[in-house]
Structure formats: C-alpha cells, structure tokens
Specification:
By secondary structure, the protein is an alpha/beta fold. It has helices at 6-25, 35-43, 49-56, 60-72, 94-114, 120-142, 198-207, 228-237, 251-259, 277-280, 289-299, 318-327, 355-366, and strands spanning 47-48, 76-80, 88-92, 150-157, 166-171, 214-218, 241-246, 265-269, 305-311, 334-338, 372-374. The chain has 2 domains: 6-142, Arc Repressor Mutant, subunit A (Orthogonal Bundle); 150-374, Aldolase class I (TIM Barrel, Alpha-Beta Barrel), CATH 3.20.20. The chain contains 13 helices and 11 strands. The strands form 2 sheets. An 8-stranded mixed beta sheet has the order 4-5-6-7-8-9-10-11, covered by helices on one side. It has a 3-stranded antiparallel beta sheet with strand order 1-3-2. Strand 5 (166-171), helix 7 and strand 6 (214-218) form a beta-alpha-beta unit. Helix 1 crosses helix 5, helix 3 (49-56) packs across helix 4 (60-72) and helix 12 runs parallel beside helix 13 (355-366). The radius of gyration is 28 Å and the shape is elongated.
Length: 377
Amino acid sequence: MHENDLLMDISILYRSTQKFYDAQLKEYHLSYAQLPVLIMIYENEGIPLNEIVVRGDYDKGTISKTVKNLEALNYIRVDSSLRDKRAKALFTTEKTKQIMSQIYSIRRRWWKHLTSHMDNESFQTFVENTHDMAEVSKKISSRIENGAYYMEWKKMSLSAYEGKISSILYTGGCNFRCPMCTKKKYVFLKDEIDELKNEEIREFFRNKQNMIDAICIEGGEPFMHIHFLSSLREMKKLNYKIKIHTNGSYYEQLKTAIDQGLVDMISMSIHNSIKEYDTSIGMKGYNIDNIKKSVAYLLEGHIPYEFEIVLVKEYHTIQNVEQMANWLRGARRIVLSNYNENEDSIAKNLHPVSEDDFRIMKNIFSAQVEEVKVCYK
C-alpha cells in the first residue's frame, strides 16, 4: 500500500504550480507569487494594502515589496484611500485590464490539468476542503500555542509511577534516532496523525483529582516542545505529581523544570557508554555534553530519579557496560531491561543480550548503584 506523505505532496503541488505559472507568465514579466495579489486588486479595485495582508495571510513587508514591483511594472497604481488618507488604496492600470482575460485563461488551464481525473462532485469537495484547510491554517499560524503536542494517552496506569495511580501522556517528536527505539511512531511523525486536544486533557485532569495521583509524560522527547514548561505549570496547579521520561539532551529545560518545582520524578534513558553514545542514538558525531550535564545534575539528588537502560546485543558489551556503571556510580536506581523488538522498532533484526550476559551486566550495575530494578517489557 502506498503511504501518503502529505507534506511532500503539498510541496510537489506548490512547486509544480509555481513552475507552470512562472513559465506561462514569463511574457508578461510576472511571477506566480505576484499573481494572487494582482487578481485580488483587479477584482477589488481600491482595496487597501492592509486588507490584502489580512485576506492572504501575508507578511506586511513581503506584500509591500510585491506591490512596489507591480507598480514598477505599471500593472497597478497606489493612491490614498478616500476613507482614510493615511491608508494606501490599490488600483489596476489599463495595462492590467488588457491582459486579464489571458491571465484567467492561464488559471483555467492549470485547474483543468490538475483536476482532469476528478468528476464534478469530487472537484467541488476538493475545492471546499482546500478552502477549509487554508482557513484553519491561517488561524493556527496566527495564534500563540500554550501547550505541548500530545499524540497518545493512556488514561490510567498502576505501574508508570511507582506507588501511584497515574495517567500517561505521550508527546510526539524526538531529536534522536535510536536504532533500538520501539516507538518509531513518536519519532517519524506522519502528517495524518492528529494531536490530542489540550482542552480535553485539561478537562480530564480537572475532574479526576480524587481518582488519579500522578501524570507521567513520555515521548518522543517531551522537553523538545517549546511550550512544554507552560503545560507542566498548568498540571502542577492541579496538585498532581509529575514524572517525566527524557533522553536528557535538553539540560537547561530539565534543570528549569526541576528548579521551579514543576516535576517530581525523572526517568532518564541512558543508551551506552560515553564513547559509544552517538552510535547508539543514531546520531554519529553528536555532542553529548548536555546529556553528561543532565546525568551529573540528577546524581546530585535534587529530585527522585532513575536511569533506564535497555540492553541490546549489537550495542552493549561487558566492557562498555562497565564504563556505563562507572559513569553512573552512586545512582539512586537503574531500571534495566533486555531488548524486545516489536513492529514499531526503528531498526530490525536487533537482539537482546543472552541471559548469562544480562545477569553479568546486572551485577556490574549492582556493584556501583544503590538499586537495580529489572523491568520485563
């Protein structure tokens, strides 16, 4: 089955449209970018410049430049508005009026090519849906978001936060490409996946304070979301305990969340020894300074924490496990598990370490940290 990639399809459609119009408009010394503005002025003689900005969701600087270019080509003239002398009103010239029938013909030809495979009903549906998508995109681009993007939600769990009834939210997107990751859907996000509605999440937590003790947030990587700390502040106002699972690469955001009391428990994934770290996260040459800072900060004991380690035969040897144990010496707890491939694994044909090696590796960690908890996934 063909897997649609909406972002790529839109990019192809945009570039193909631009090529067609630029070629057809060349004799008029016009470009595809100028055409919608010229048509808007022709169909709304005397339209104020600001109205074009609003209707087309344009950047004001960009539209001012386009208007100047059209004026220089003698396609439009700029007068003072009769309603507001400070505003600019735009009119087409006689030169424009002489070519508009050809311009409309070019537009009709492109639409005929583009929709030749559609019947009339499909075409009308396409036009309506495209218009609706454009209107929604204008609203989204103009508003300030105030939360993280959550892709999945397990409303109740007895195991995610030890000793507490919790609800688990999963953010989408990750800055790593770990081959052993078994949550590919949170790394390579598809366009058709919808985020959960933040208002629905807020309403749930406002009404479940007698049933749920804690909120656990996993990913992906939660701290990569610009407004994640704002989301945490909202949750803490409702007096929930908060646990975050992170890869530790966003040290400043992690430290801020802890220092401001926005999180009660951190679970940080550790992928390998310092020397082998970049390979194990699928980012050859990646600078892990922020990860080392996060480890050091957690080891200082500012907050309850644990380091989560998944052992993979192809990536972990006795030697680099010893190096990991030395790095994490004195840690409060390590949660250790053996790799278990699933259908959502990024890399295929990776394997767990043998039972004997797992036992040896567990003992290596046990000698260096306070507690090793084995997790069977």
